Batch of 2 targets.
Target 1
Amino acid sequence: MSRESAFIDSLRAIATHPAARGLADDAAVLGDLVLTHDMIVEGVHFLPADPPADIAWKLAAVNLSDLAAKGATPLGALIGYGLTGDAAWDAAFAAGLAAALDQFGLPLLGGDTVSLPAGAPRTLGMTAIGRAPPGGAPARSGARAGDGLFVTGTVGDAGLGLAMAQGRLEGPAALGDAYRRPVPLIAAGQALAAQVSAMMDVSDGLLIDAARMADASGLALRVDLDRVPLSPALVAVSGGGRAARIAAATAGDDYQLLFAAAAPPAGLPCPVTRIGAFSAGRGLSLCDAGTPVSLPDRLGYLHD
Amino acid sequence: MSRESAFIDSLRAIATHPAARGLADDAAVLGDLVLTHDMIVEGVHFLPADPPADIAWKLAAVNLSDLAAKGATPLGALIGYGLTGDAAWDAAFAAGLAAALDQFGLPLLGGDTVSLPAGAPRTLGMTAIGRAPPGGAPARSGARAGDGLFVTGTVGDAGLGLAMAQGRLEGPAALGDAYRRPVPLIAAGQALAAQVSAMMDVSDGLLIDAARMADASGLALRVDLDRVPLSPALVAVSGGGRAARIAAATAGDDYQLLFAAAAPPAGLPCPVTRIGAFSAGRGLSLCDAGTPVSLPDRLGYLHD
């Protein structure tokens, strides 16, 4: 067991309140409030050379994506900010944060600013608070046998964007933007909330997150690799073959919404694709054009 | 201007929502919710050799003290935890957190766990959410000319406890406990909320925090040094002379409640002492047995 999951298990033993949802959901749901907290660390979640405004954007976006996955309406955010003594970086971060919060309509309500010791990596946290949708916030664990598995938009773009940011790949700006400036799907989450039996966001990779939804729901899940939606930019760079599809379905940072539903949802502001089906049983399986395919060794980004 | 306050000023320019209270209060107040976030960093807010269970206690206590200062009833907490690869430390922290949250009746609702790069200082955050008192959460800025300044309990004990933890002083265990295990005054805060015109907790030092209340309220404030309440343990170690009183009134980490009220409050579960008075004007002044005394150079813990 990894060091992260051992510690999370010990937290899970503490978090017995129903609002905690066993620490197995994107957010806590306390009455009509949805609450989430994410930390990002230099060298782990972002690159030291990433522009500060992009990091501010991403900090807000990843938190809002958790709210989107519960169909919530954002109410505000608190920030935790570690200063490293680089005033120009801090000023650029603050300007980027102002722009991102304005773009997302997310009021900054408070937080804490601390000085980090010399040499410490930048460490940032954000708590986002939202209002649950009228019918309640969908859980990860609600999928039913017979439901389809659906995903919004396209996946894999951010993974190629990361490779571009690391200098491992050249590609179109659209892929870089997907990595640097993910867009939380707040309106889609609100429209979906009453139409889904389970929902989460894709943060660590489509396959690993889909496997988590199936596990949490106590069901088996088949994913149809040939139906995984890819962007034209991704296909242009990596082709649309099986290897490219597996890479796209195991890259992280997509922040698309993944959901289980008995029927295709209506009234959405974005495209949705049916990519699989839940059934009685346990475990994830993969098909490509109707033919069973072995699961890759790595289903997504695994925290060490 | 310090680097911390320059950055806070830039956040203040973003945080225009009334719930943010200009980032000049202990917590955000959004409708009937009170929200606070605090970060603590190894080498800055705690010593590397401090027991993990004490750090878990303190993380919860400092957040709850912010809720206490607004008279709020705690609803739950989210944690942000940076793993450093020391599983024994993490396990001891988790056990201490379980004990502290149980003691305080604070449900753990969620949060995030991340891996820190090798050598990074431990960095922890907590967000606490509470329900505002029925009459609303008192602000720091509500003091009125003619109000008295009051403080609960005694001050200065934690400052001596820190000196003991650093090996600079020998003293009784009660002082060490005040530093290691501060007790958030939730019940006192609830009882005070409807009786005060302004309230905050004493985190950076009595004089600096009192000066902040006066500034926020646009008033002058006189503090009577001879009335500052000292514990028998503190008096036994440092005497009760003027220097000891100034040291006690400028040490941090007390987590007592400081408030402005027209009359002494009733129905409190802890002692309260009147230590000064607000009047028209600006600025902090100090008296000792009726004689004006110069302000010390340092009013409390100043963030760099």
Target 2
Amino acid sequence: MKKPVTTLCYIENDDSYLMLHRVKKKNDLNEHKWVGIGGHAEEGESPEDCLLREAREETSLTLTSYRFRGLVTFVSDKWGTEYMCLYTADGFQGILSDCDEGCLEWVPKKEIPRLNLWKGDLIFFRLLEENVPFFSLKLCYEGDRLILWQLNGMDMGADLPDEEKWKEILDSLRAI
Amino acid sequence: MKKPVTTLCYIENDDSYLMLHRVKKKNDLNEHKWVGIGGHAEEGESPEDCLLREAREETSLTLTSYRFRGLVTFVSDKWGTEYMCLYTADGFQGILSDCDEGCLEWVPKKEIPRLNLWKGDLIFFRLLEENVPFFSLKLCYEGDRLILWQLNGMDMGADLPDEEKWKEILDSLRAI
């Protein structure tokens, strides 16, 4: 049985993230969605062990600089609960290869909201861009619909924040 | 099957941590050891959901202020791999009750190294006291013996650091 612990990594280059368009796997939780690279931890692996292995397997790149940015508890009525260790990486070696699980593409950060994403991913992309301290984000879905999210244990409703709400959230995170 | 994701929390009061002496459960990974409170995440629970439930179940306390300090990957040749979300809590309400899993005791922080602990716990106790940013710590055991540890993906050998090594570690963590 696969562990419910996974890694999810957004590799950065200039102002782009390396995005994976999941169009190759059958019966895929992320079918047709754009996500980062990563996958399930294997027996005995730390999140960093898993991160480095998955980066090699999916991109042929060796990560040389990365940061653990947050833990995302992904709860789906269809797929169960997954604990995603969220990383960004800003250093790597090697030459990007094709990936069995989808199409890899460098996407400018400002174009990312136009992609077919899990809606809640917009929340962590903003938190990453704002460079807030480590966060714990819970995202609950019914099918594709975000029905509830929590940040560091605080209930945040179902909707994405407007700018006023974001200001409040960011102020409170930076005061920690 | 129990999820391999758990919480481990050290509740603080003055200069003490609330420690749990695990002397009540049979076939217990932690038998006779002193640990924090916590336990396995249940379906749909974020680490914070799990933390608050376990605190209530094991101590009758309601945590009102807590921080997610690190992720500990505990690898045992006997028990497999567990991902422990490590918290400290400095706010709580209620009256401390007995715990089914062991004896609860407030232990002054400076006396903690004298307790029967997992050896690697001394590493995270130091990291907590030094108030370093969020960390990922991997601890590998053969039986009771620490055979390898890693900090934020860096190999650190099998031994606990001496003071010189600690200075180097803390400087590098604070430079992140």
